[in-house]
Amino acid sequence: MTENLKWQITSDSLDASQLLVDETLFHVANGYIGVRGNFEEGYPNHYNTIRGAYINGVYDISEVKHGEKLHGFIDSKQKIINITDVQGIKLYIAGEKFSLFDGKVLNFKRILDMREGIYKRQILWESPKGHIIEINIQRMASFIKPELFVIDYTVRSINYEGEIVFVSTQKGDVFNYFDPTDPRVAGELEKHLTVETIDIQKDIGIITSITNKSHIRVTSAVKHVVSSQHELERIQDDKSSTTKIRLYIKAGQAQRLVKYCIFTDSVRFSDCHQAAIDKMEEVLETPIEQLYQLQKVYLSAFWDKADVVVNGDDRLQQGIHFSLFELLQSVGKDQYSNIAAKGLSGEGYEGHYFWDTEIYMLPFFLLTDKALAENLLNYRYEKLEAARENARILGHKKGALYPWRTISGSECSAYFPSGTAQYHINADIAYMFVQYYFVTGDLDFVESKGAEVLFETARLWMDTGHYVEDSFRIDAVTGPDEYTCIVNNNYYTNCMAKYNLKWAVKFYELLKENNRIEHLAQKLGITEEEVNEWQQAAEKMYLPYDEKLDINPQDDSFLSKAIWDFENTPKDQYPLLLHYHPLYIYRYQVCKQADTVLAHFLLEDEQKLSTIKKSYEYYEKITTHDSSLSTCIFSIVAAKLGEIRKAYDYFMQTTRLDLDNIHHNTKDGIHTANMGGTYMGMVYGFAGLRIKESGIFFNPVIPEQWKSYEFKICYQGRMIKIHVNQEQSHYTLLEGKELKIHVYDQEYILNDDIIIKI
């Protein structure tokens, strides 16, 4: 693999099933807008496609129907919407329509360049009549101008002289993708967007639409800039606009069409129609080549801070770069959005935000971009009132319960056993507020937002749990493993709830010591007595433990169940959730993903090393990894236990999951949590990073397949570079004051460089 290919994703496939996957892999996004990698000219009619473009945080509302609706079941859910389709550009050469499925494809390649932030399609094509042309198409979703998506289409003639015609479309009549056989995507066909107005102003085609139930407006504005003299004709109806552009081309000559597309919405703009015009005029002031250069400069700064370099494993390096780039493309960069389970690459999980953000993706931003990490936590704080309302719906008199899946802040999970019952999301969010404090030392943020979130989530645990024989227990919840639902004393949930309660007390004491608690305590009605109750519950929290096996049972009943018959389960019956009734699965010891093992990573100090090791070995045998959130965690814990070969194998599955379509559903969008898991696997796994109240710790290991690896992290105002090879680990303080670090449990003062033998 060349150096360029470490930074590029490429494909030359025209296979129908791979094209669906490539629509995901070659999407472009910037955290605000995302556009799937569909061919501008389309496919043959019998080919399937998921043609889509999305705005982060823009949604419509769908009715949820229950055969038997009980109290508190949701009536509706939010769903990310497919917005106006601006991708269409058809090309005609002497009346022949260009298509990669007609004539002769002499050369075809598509490239996602992760240093330039551009997707390219390169084609050499001979028409049925023998006309040969070269086509180069570039797409960009700008990180500098977040409303901008551009298609840059160049045609160079090899042996043809005559007229060429571009037919460019802007379609407001769009639908969301659905599949009633797959619970991971929408199961119903619905139209969510209705065109309100369609017009032309200042040579800009504008369509403003409104969502049918949430009443959010979305505007698309399109402007065509052509390289030479041309004839232009516009045709429009009440739902779409078509622009025909006629040019003359000679052999050896090139003609270029740049299609500028602006998206705005009424969530962010009071008048999204006018805002689209203003943003278009602003964009057109900057030459297209300069926009490309600005994109490259932005990404150069990103990679300088965020890159993880592995020397000696090119396929893995490509997967790492893809993961980090997709995290950047997916993350919302304002207060109105978060990170959807599929980013902005597809409609899997309907654009919902999950616990994935805090546990899997936020660590990357926390260690590389404090501002983006703070934005993600701000989103949770802004949804705190909705979480309080959700808690009341569930019968809780106090506290806040964050919804399992949401966009606007209300619960969108219709199947509560593996949705709403996952109360651990409260502790997951609380955990990352604490991690943010460890990494930044930002007491102002604790006072203004973090403490309130921890106090309200702590209250929820007090209202959920109860005492039995002097131990605090939590019944009828679901842990991360969705193959075991509605259980008592899920180890992960109890362990994380304990941490949540403990740090609610610590935040209270921290603010009290600094004379900052009075206003918040008065606002929330918090008393010293209540804080003492949190402390007692944390101290008395019941954590299941089996003395004979020296493991932490996943829950009270887990070890009493029969073990799933893995030997006689056909490979085509995975994932189990698509082939077996949930109740059937719930009766067995079988895990969809890391559960207790995840707790052993996040809160490793709760158990002795032998228990962590034996738990890992026990659950490894019964975990299917049907969830994309699993292999990265097993890799991290394997690295901690010195199982380096296993850690490497799990990590390779993680980094290549979407590039190799391992779960066979990449067509629905990337697995963004898995992308975050790739970063965690390197930094928390092989480098052994842990960030605790007592400081920053490293325990590096390296697989035999690698010569070295290195990355940078930001920690309490410092930037540290970590380099590990087969002989030693090297720590360099690049910015900031000297710092105490721990390597292999030994304390060092880092004021320049430290080299430690492995």
UniProtKB/TrEMBL annotation:
Region forming the signal peptide: none
Active site (record annotation): E482 (proton donor)
Entries under Pfam families matching the protein: Glyco_hydro_65C, Glyco_hydro_65m, Glyco_hydro_65N
GO molecular function: carbohydrate binding; glycosyltransferase activity; hydrolase activity, hydrolyzing O-glycosyl compounds
Gene Ontology biological-process annotations: carbohydrate metabolic process
Domain Glycoside hydrolase family 65 N-terminal: 11-264
Domain Glycoside hydrolase family 65 central catalytic span(s) in chain numbering: 322-679
Record: residues binding substrate: W355, D356, K592, Q593
Record keywords: Hydrolase
All copies of domain Glycoside hydrolase family 65 C-terminal, residue ranges: 689-750
PANTHER family: GLYCOSYL HYDROLASE-RELATED, MALTOSE PHOSPHORYLASE
Family stated for the protein in its record: Belongs to the glycosyl hydrolase 65 family.
Identification of the protein by name: Family 65 glycosyl hydrolase
Classification lineage: Bacteria, Bacillati, Bacillota, Clostridia, Lachnospirales
